[in-house]
Specification:
Strand content: 15-25%
Order of helices and strands: EEEEEEHH
Number of strands: 6
Shape: elongated
Structural class: alpha+beta
Strand order of the largest sheet: 1-2
Number of helices: 2
Radius of gyration: 23 Å
Number of domains: 1
Helix content: 10-25%
Largest sheet: 2 strands, antiparallel
Length: 120
């Protein structure tokens, strides 16, 4: 009997994992992980200086999507922060601490004397 394929999480397209596409730190409504809670988001192609540019449009307002500022905006991987920033973009900016540096910091904390904290 053939096995059913296991369902992929919503941030996978086919076999490839979708990555967030923020603009700087801000959430981008054209990101493949961006979702509209009212299902009013659609992508339109508009001419701009002789080129075709994709823009995110809102069916509710009839204009451009305002992205993370909208009350119905959400992210498939829950990386949309309340101030319209993408947590995945902020993760990339924060430097990773190596294991050696972390161990040195732990040793500094462990070098204190317990008698300094005793109450008499």
């Amino acid at each position: 009997m053939p096995r059913k394929p296991t369902p992929q999480p919503s941030h996978y397209v086919g076999e490839q994992k979708v990555t967030p596409q923020p603009i700087g730190e801000k959430c981008n409504p054209l990101c493949p992980l961006f979702m509209c809670g009212r299902n009013a988001l659609f992508v339109a192609n508009k001419p701009f200086k002789g080129r075709i540019v994709k823009t995110a449009q809102c069916r509710l307002t009839g204009g451009e999507c305002i992205g993370g500022e909208c009350q119905y905006s959400s992210c498939k991987v829950n990386s949309l922060l309340p101030d319209n920033r993408c947590a995945k973009a902020l993760e990339k900016k924060v430097g990773r601490v190596s294991d050696e540096e972390l161990f040195k910091q732990m040793m500094q904390f462990e070098e204190y004397d317990v008698s300094d904290f005793k109450r008499y």
